[in-house]
Amino acid sequence: MTATVEPVAVPDAASPSLDAVWEDRPGIPGFLTTVDHKRIAVRYLVTATAFLFIGGLEAMVLRAQLAGPNGTVVDADTYNRIMTMHGTTMIFLFNTPVFAGFGNYLVPLLIGAREMAFPRVNAFSYWVYLGSGSLLYSSFLLHAVPDGGWFAYTPLTSSAYSPDVGLDLWAMGIVFLGISTTAGGINFIVTIFRMRAPGMTLSRLPLFCWAILTMSFMIVFALPAITLAGVLLELDRTFGMQFFSPAGGGDPLLYQHLFWIWGHPEVYILFIPATGIISMVVATFSGRRVVAYHLVVAALVATGFISFGLWMHHMFATGVPFLVASFFSAASLVVAIPSGVQIFAWLATMLTGRVRLEVPMLFAIGFVVTFVIGGMTGVMVGVVPFDQQVTDSYFVVAHFHYVLIGGTVFPAFAGLHYWFPKAIGRMPSRRLGVWSFWFTFVGTQLTFFPQHILGLEGMPRRVWTYPEGLGWDGPNALSTAGSVVLGVGLLLSVVAFALAWRRGEPADADPWGGETLEWAIPSPPPPYNFAGVPIVRSDAPMWDDDPPRAITHLDGEDLTVPHDGHHRAVLTSPLDAAGLEAVSMPEPSYTPLVVAGSLTLLCVAVIASSWPIGLVAVVVASAALIRWHDGIGS
Amino acid sequence: MSSPAIAPGEPLATTAGDRPYALARPLGWWGVVGLIATEATLFGLLLFVNFYLRANADAWPLGDIADPELVKSGIRSVILVGSSVPVALAERAQRRGHQRAFRRWLGVTLALAAVFLAGHVEEYVTLWSEFRPDTNAYGSVFYTITGLHALHLVVGMAVLTYLLVQSARGRYDGVPEPHGVSAGILYWHFVDAVWIAVYTSLYLSVTLS
Q1: B120: distance to nearest CA of chain A, Å?
Q2: Containing domain of residue A611, as a range?
Q3: How far is A114 from chain B (nearest CA, A)?
Q4: A225 — contact with chain B (CB < 8 Å)?
Q5: A129 and A245 share one domain
Q6: CA of A579 to nearest chain B CA: how many angstroms apart?
Q7: B132 touches chain A (CB under 8 A)
């Protein structure tokens, strides 16, 4: 291999002639065929944010019903359905995909790559996400909204007690979405191991990418459990199988095991990428690298491992043996340690840096405060006797909303404000952002802090109403008022983004003074990201003394000009990012959309028990897969 | 301007020619490794379901169902697991550029798989009159796990057939490392390996205990 290195700043190498090869076709065909990770990522982020507001509206209905005793906004049955959709939407359709969106946008940029490893799989993942979201929400049109809670425990969800099609849509939607999440996870792993810029050894990998890498490994090993829970539930419901039915030798508790073997790692699948965002934001706005990089990486990986040994703490009240409960209780306390390591690393970074209170940093600080409160109640409910007092009470609701809103919504909005200028090329209003932060922060505390007290006073979760005179009226009213404030806060950010998108101040390449490679290229980035392959010499390449350099010629090929009209990208070795090799990447195609569409049809066929539709779906999917594969250059 | 001012120790010294073979694997191969990891977890969890229900049962199989038969299923298993040999020979022939031998060994592999599958169908036909997936939890576990494995086998056969057709169409002539070959063959080894775990858990350990 021979390579030429131009001692030029990376942005100056931008080459208009590469646009001709990398730019999507205009209009609808380009929209449907694109494999550009940035366009797909923006789609993920927009769709996930839309689901955040749909799930938020559902939450407002629940809060309106519970604002005072004997509420009459919705009846018990509607309450159960809306509660189920609120939880399902927030976990499956907002929280998981929003970080897939961030990962998609940022991983190639942060590692100096032009593409994801599997661009078409990436497009496919998004279409499947959209398909499964549509499947779940089609239950509204069919007047069969699922009502088994977001966890869908049997036997409540067996066909005897939940006869309508809503739960079938739930189970198939979740199984189907798992394909999207898993494909995305594998895509991130291969991208990070094979496409890092030369010189970016694993110990120079940006913390955000470490977080996405950890999350992806967790997805690969945790997602099969929810897939299996959904499939077995559907087999019981549709084909009369007996996995969860005691009369036939099955066991309902088995469902809970499968659900939580996924469900507890899932909490960290949501939280770990969020910490990746926080590490980037805290470093930039403290003006220094995150303290103790290696310890933070170790903490991420440790969290990933430990999270697989926690699942039974969701089942302390089901009568699991004392010794087993003790083990899971101990593990639940241990997992607080790596989270604590990260928190202290960020605090030390802020203390020893020069903090700039820009909007992303406000959200990051709001995250630390809110998450620490949720983490402390987490340690409390990790202790078996305490858990048995508060289980199934509002204390638990307060705990996990602090963790999820603090641990994922605040970081997501920190990330949106931080990278919006990069992605769109315009600055969102700081004024609106600051207002948004304070409304969101105050709203979160107002909504969820009183719920701790409600739980300790004995209010059970999942109830649709309560009588007066129990002392629950005040905290409930406060909580409902807070939810309005919270909703306004998040809406203000969206308003800020919408206004900026239309007529914001133009953003330059590096408006915040960031440390990583995405700030080396123009805002918004060109479709090929980097004209030359950046060379990385540290874990904060933008803060090196000399500007980043780029490889422009590799084995006689000029990388900055089109090469036979193909998308060319550079592969490197998995651990030390050496041994460069230029390869042609898959180009835009309709096939990911067709395969995702026919798999959606297959789900419909399973729910409707229609063999002909199923057969058509399989044939179309197979034909499209062959075409997909044939179209990839060798 | 083109002075390679790279400090000593910068990773530009390696050449594409002398990479270890593992690194030369195409991206698709790495993707299939990920797929296998997640699918192996899925099968592992299914076997967990099997042992969980079995541990809670007084007798396994439940009810009046007889123990699984071992002779015919044992022969079938040897045939399937043995098919990893011709598929490995096919991969070697491919790497040496021998397209005809590649197709011949793929054909042998597919024939062995077809024998296994035929035995599978025969077994289902026999057992169907004795118990079904909805008879009890044993039936659910047995048919679901063996059925899911059969589905994987059919997908694997489709992939190998695709590779065979591509080779016959001359698409691989002169291509040093055709897209999808090593990935498809790795997947086949996985389908074989899973059967060892399934056969041990659902047949051997039931009848022999």
Answers
A1: 21
A2: 591-630
A3: 15
A4: yes
A5: yes
A6: 5
A7: no
The B residues from 19 to 48 touching A (CB cutoff 8 Å) are: 19, 23, 27, 30-31, 34-35, 37-39, 41-42, 45-46
pLDDT, tens digit, 9 for 90 and up, residues B90-130: 999 998 889 999 999 999 999 999 999 999 999 999 999 99
The answer to whether residues A377 and A235 belong to one domain is yes
Task: Note whether A569 contacts B: Cβ–Cβ < 8 A.
Answer: no
Strand partners of residue B131:
none
Residues A473, A605, single domain; the answer is no
**Residue A612: partners with Cβ closer than 8 Å, 6 or more residues away:** none
Q: Do A160 and A252 contact (CB within 8 A), yes or no?
A: no
Residue B11 pLDDT class (50, 70, 90 cuts): very low
CB spacing of B16 vs A190 below 8 angstroms: no
Question: How far is the alpha carbon of A153 from chain B, nearest alpha carbon, in Å?
Answer: 16
- B23 pLDDT band (50/70/90 cuts)? low
Question: So what's the pLDDT on residue A145?
Answer: 95
Please give, rounded to a whole number of angstroms, the shortest distance from the CA of B79 to a CA of chain A.
Answer: 28
Q: Which of A454, A483, A506 is the last residue of a domain?
A: A506
Q: Which domains does chain B have, with CATH numbers?
A: 68-207 (1.20.120.80)
Pick out chain A residues at pLDDT < 70. Answer: 1-2, 4-16, 633-634
Structure-token match 């990447």, residue found:
A585
The domain that holds A252 is classified in CATH as 1.20.210.10
Number of domains in chain A: 2
Question: What residues have CB less than 8 Å from A251, skipping those under 6 apart?
Answer: A244, B52, B53, B56, B137
* Per-residue pLDDT tens digits for A84-115: 999 999 999 999 999 999 999 999 999 999 99
Domain contains A60: yes
Distances (CA, A) of A2 to A435, A553, A555, B20: 54, 8, 5, 18
ipTM: 0.94
Is A352 part of any domain? Answer: yes
Task: State the amino acid at position B36 in one-letter form.
Answer: I
In terms of domains, do A495 and A609 share one? no
- A254 Cβ under 8 Å from any chain B Cβ: yes
Candidates B38, B56, B146, B177, partner chain A, best to mutate (most A CBs within 10 A): B38
Q: Does A235 touch chain B (CB under 8 A)?
A: yes
User: Does residue A228 sit at the B interface (CB-CB below 8 Å)?
Assistant: yes
Mutate to test the interface with B, among A241, A243, A587 (most CBs of B within 10 A): A241
Decide if B11 and A235 are in contact by the 8 Å CB cutoff. no
CA distance B14 to chain A (A): 5
Assigned token pair, B199: 């056969």
Q: What is the dihedral of CA A240, A242, A244, A247, to 10 degrees?
A: 110
Considering the domain boundaries, does residue A515 fall inside one? no
Residues in chain B closer than 8 A to A572 (CB atoms)? 11
For the record, the structure tokens of A428 come out as: 């969102």
Helices then strands, counting H and E runs in chain A, come out as: 20, 8
Among the candidates A484, A506, A528, a domain finishes at A506
Cβ–Cβ under 8 Å, residues B57 and A236: no
Same domain? For A271 and A160 the reply is yes
Residues A490 and A622 in one domain: no
Residues A501, A615 within the same domain: no
DSSP run (H or E) holding A342: helix A336-352
Contacts of A249 in chain B (CB under 8 A): 53, 56-57, 62, 136-138
pLDDT score, position A19: 84
Same domain, A179 and A60: yes
**With contact defined as beta carbons under 8 Å apart, do A194 and B30 qualify?**
yes
User: For residue A178, is it within any domain?
Assistant: yes
Work out how many CB contacts closer than 8 A connect A with B: 160
